[in-house]
């Protein structure tokens, strides 16, 4: 969902504090595929097709949304690392969630997310502090720095996994 988390990375932090914070976010990205798999494990077809809140996406749609969103994030990261403040392409996530692949069994997206995050984490781990200050321009929400963007996606995975866990309780 396009809910922006307020990102706290005050300018007063030391390089060591920033590095530790980035490592925490990378670990959250690294563990998200495993946590998603655990969150949907054993759910019935009926539960998978239950909205996590009235009028919201079903668990199945949320599961397919995660690789939709994170594939876009991965591409934007690669653009920002290889071009000078590129303008990135927004996408209509609500309409993506209505395309035919959102009705598939969830396994395809569990596997896709797992493979994607291996590649994503490999790049994130390789980036210097200077790389994390690189930027891209989102036509709607403006200029993003890559450390802010990492924080956003560390949060995004947890946010949706919490939605899925909420239907189990
Ligand atoms: Ni989302």
Distance between the termini: 22 Å
Shape: globular
Q: Give the helix/strand class.
A: mainly alpha
Q: How much strand content do the residues show?
A: under 5%
Largest sheet: 2 strands, antiparallel
Bound molecules: nickel (II) ion
What Rg is obtained from the alpha carbons, in whole angstroms? 16 Å
Number of strands: 2
Q: How are the strands ordered across the major sheet?
A: 1-2
* Contiguous helical run count: 7
Low-pLDDT ranges: none
H/E series: HHHHHHEEH
Question: Can you walk me through this structure?
Answer:
With 169 residues, the chain is mainly alpha-helical. 62% of the residues lie in helices and 5% in strands. The chain contains seven helices and two strands. The chain has helices at residues 15-40, 45-48, 59-82, 93-96, 107-126, 129-132, 146-168; strands at 135-138, 142-145. A two-stranded antiparallel sheet has the order 1-2. Strand 1 (135-138) and strand 2 form a beta hairpin. Bound molecules: nickel (II) ion. Nickel (II) ion binds at residues 1, 65, 69, 156, 160.
Please provide a brief summary of the model.
By secondary structure, this protein is mainly α. The chain has helices spanning 15-40, 45-48, 59-82, 93-96, 107-126, 129-132, 146-168, and strands at 135-138, 142-145. It is globular, with a radius of gyration of 16 Å.
Write the layout of secondary structure elements.
Blueprint: H1 15-40, H2 45-48, H3 59-82, H4 93-96, H5 107-126, H6 129-132, E1 135-138, E2 142-145, H7 146-168
Antiparallel strand pairs: 1-2
Helix pairs in contact: 1-5, 1-7, 3-5, 3-7
Bound molecules: nickel (II) ion.
């Amino acid at each position: 969902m396009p809910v922006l988390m307020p990102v706290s990375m005050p300018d007063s932090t030391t390089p060591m504090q920033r590095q530790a914070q980035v490592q925490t976010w990378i670990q959250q990205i690294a563990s998200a595929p495993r946590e998603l798999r655990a969150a949907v494990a054993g759910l019935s077809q009926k539960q998978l097709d239950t909205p996590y809140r009235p009028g919201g996406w079903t668990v199945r749609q949320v599961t397919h949304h995660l690789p939709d969103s994170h594939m876009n994030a991965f591409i934007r990261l690669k653009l920002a690392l290889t071009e000078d403040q590129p303008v990135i392409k927004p996408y209509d996530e609500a309409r993506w969630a209505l395309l035919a692949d959102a009705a598939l069994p969830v396994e395809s997206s569990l596997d896709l997310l797992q493979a994607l995050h291996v590649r994503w984490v490999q790049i994130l781990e390789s980036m210097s502090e200077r790389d994390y200050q690189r930027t891209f321009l989102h036509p709607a929400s403006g200029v993003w720095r890559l450390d802010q963007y990492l924080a956003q996606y560390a949060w995004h995975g947890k946010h949706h996994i919490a939605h899925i866990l909420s239907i189990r309780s």
